[in-house]
Amino acid sequence: MSDAILTARGLRKSYASGDRRLDVLNGVDLDVAKGESVSIRGESGSGKSTLLQLLAGLDAPDAGTLAWAGSADTGTKRRATFLGIVFQSFYLIPELNARENVLMARRILGRLDAAARARADELLAKVGLTERATHLSSQLSGGERQRVAVARALMNSPQLLLADEPTGNLDETTGDAVIELLLGLCAESQTALVLVTHNAAHARKTHRQLFLRGGSFAHG
Amino acid sequence: MPWYLYLALKQLFPTGRKFPFFTAISVLGVSLGVALLVISTSVMGGFGYEIRRMIVDTQGDVQVRGQGLVEDGAGLQARLATVPGVVATTPFAEGVVMLQHERKPAFPAMQGIDVNRVSKVVPLERFIRAGSLDELDDDSIILSSKLALSIGARLGSKVEVTSPLVVEKIKSEEIYLPRELRVVGIFEVGHQQLDSSVVLVTLRLMQELYGLGTAIHGVNVKIVPGLDADVAAARINAALPPAARVTARSWMEANQDFLFILQLEKNMIFFLLLFIIIVAAFSVTSSLLISVVRKTREIGLLGALGGQPRQVAACFCFQGLLIGTTGTVAGLVLGFTTLYFRNALVEGFTRLTASEEVLTRFYQFSQLPAHTSKGDVVLIVVCSVVISTLAGLLPAWRAARLKPVEALRNE
Fold it and tell me: Which residues, 6+ apart, have CB-to-CB distance to A37 below 8 Å?
């Protein structure tokens, strides 16, 4: 695939469990194209989050290869610009307000200028939080926090967005709204999306649905 | 501003919170340590400074003493006047006498001074509280204030002085009558010992009372301001022939044991009080370690966003530095403010405990002295900031070791 944003081949990962090793991933292959959205479902403990951590370069596989836009460089510096991550628990920095949390993604790159501030304001407007921009995370609802996390993930205009059960801590209505927002923003910016979810309805809204079982994908 | 410094500032002074409790407690610990160090080193420095000033003001910068009597005092002074750096000289003779006023005896140290020259070397007029140095002649005496009080003498009183010469006279079966002197002045230096046991007479009278003829015990020397007293003493010793049997000693050399003890006390107090800052630093370490544990998932997030481990470490190290710097500045302000009001505070305390006289007698000074040297302040600031920054190292190291994936998994 020439415009592949993400290419994973034969990813394997196992963890020590007492005296034994527990194989979590047994040779996972995955290709995600530019602007494509892919959902990954699976039972609890099936290795969805582990796979996402490998795809994000946060953890190293025991075997297999990973490439972002054809490059094997999945280091910390490239991660900051190439991909955005949305977590189930939001992980907003409590000492910062919504706008400062969004800007933190750009601060880490060391390029905080007027354009970056305008981008943060634009994203906050897109997620409907212009009025709440100066509120601390403790002053925001769960849905609002996750929308801030989405805006932060998109701050550096990533080519790939990884979302790990982003609606896991939200009620159904709020969760639906966040997924709509996530898909809409990714489609608008042609950002590839890998969505890990338990929710079949949310999964169906992506271009492609994958099911993780026994450490590898089973189409379903 | 780099993100890790920005985040460190935000964690210490969070947006929208007027009183960051953790920061305030940490800063307070450091500032109390710094304030105590400033106060104690300044007061100890004040004692040293006052004693030094008093020694120089009463003895001169350099004192030249004979191994016995100096027979040719005028010749010695003429020779001293040729030494580079010597501004003025004044001869002296000294000894213990018995002094009586209305049957109240005292045994002060009597200093015979050359009234015409003494003011060129030591500022005696400054210490005269009543009467005048100009009125001092061969039939009069100037008493120290507490001595005058203890024997009930005042200006115009007559006191009787008996010198050890009386023993010689009795041996040779001569009649010796005490010398009656009129009190023409009362002086007060501010030092308990000097103010209760010294009297001044003319050099001629002292020579007469001790049967010295024209001999003296030594010469006090004033040197050019800024010239090191030890250097001046060395120059004088080099200029004097060994046959003169006299030795010049700077005020520092003459009082070196006392000054050494004073410096040792100051250093010991500094060393002990430094532990307050070290204890405060441990509290900073503990607070930052708790912060690292509490913020484990945020640290993981920063790694996931692209933050480098060394930048995460810098974030916590900078918090230690900032607490140290803020605490040091607050401590300096607190310390100098306390020093400014020290006498009022001591006065209040002594009034409450009725211990004013005991304090004066024990510490020799009527006012609590303070003298802050730049070197001491620089040392305190450097120690405080360095120790506080080091306090942030362990939490920083812990934070840097956290792997994003493990930190994010932490619940």
Answer: A183, A186, A187, A192, A193, A194, A195, A205, A206, A207, A208
Nearest alpha carbon to residue B396 among B2, B1, B4:
B4
- And the tokens for B401? 């070791």
- Residue B307 domain-assigned (yes or no): yes
Does B77 map to a domain?
no
Element (H, E) at B140: strand B140-144
Judge if B189 and B268 occupy the same domain: no
pLDDT at B393 over 90: no
Domain carrying residue B41? 3-51+258-409
ipTM for this prediction: 0.83
What separation in angstroms does the CA of B24 have from each of B21, B62, B144, B295?
5, 52, 52, 19
Chain B positions in Cβ-Cβ contact with residue A53 (cut-off 8 Å) = 405, 408
Domains of chain A: 35-46+74-218 (3.40.50.300)
Sign of CA dihedral A179, A183, A184, A185: positive
Q: What is the pLDDT of residues B173-206, one digit of tens each?
A: 777 778 899 999 999 887 777 788 899 999 999 9
Q: Are B142 and B154 in contact (CB under 8 A)?
A: no
Strands B104-106 and B179-187, by their bridges, are unpaired
CB atoms near residue B224 (< 10 Å): 11
CA B159 to chain centroid, in Å, comes to: 36
d(CA B92, CA B220): 7
**Sequence-distant (≥ 6) Cβ neighbours of residue A48 within 8 angstroms:** A40, A41, A42, A164, A165, A196, A212
In chain B, how many domains are there? 2
B-chain residues within 8 Å CB-CB of A152? 305
Alpha-carbon Rg of chain B, whole angstroms? 31
Average pLDDT over residues B297-308: 85
State pLDDT tens for residues B141-177: 999 999 999 999 989 999 999 988 877 777 777 777 7
Contacts of A97 in chain B (CB under 8 A): 15-16
Q: Considering only CB atoms, which residues of chain A are within 8 Å of chain B?
A: 53, 56, 58-59, 76-77, 79-81, 85, 87, 89, 91, 93-97, 100, 104-105, 107-110, 136, 152
DSSP one-letter code for B191:
B
**B266 Cβ contact list (under 8 Å, min separation 6):** B41, B44, B45, B48
Q: Which of A13, A54, A77, A104 to mutate to test the interface with B (most CBs of B within 10 A)?
A: A104
Confidence class of residue A1 from pLDDT cuts 50, 70 and 90?
Answer: very low
Phi, then psi, of B360 in degrees rounded to 5: -65, -40
- Cα separation, B243 vs A84, whole angstroms: 94
pLDDT for position B261 = 84
Measured distance CA(B407)–CA(B277) in Å, rounded: 32
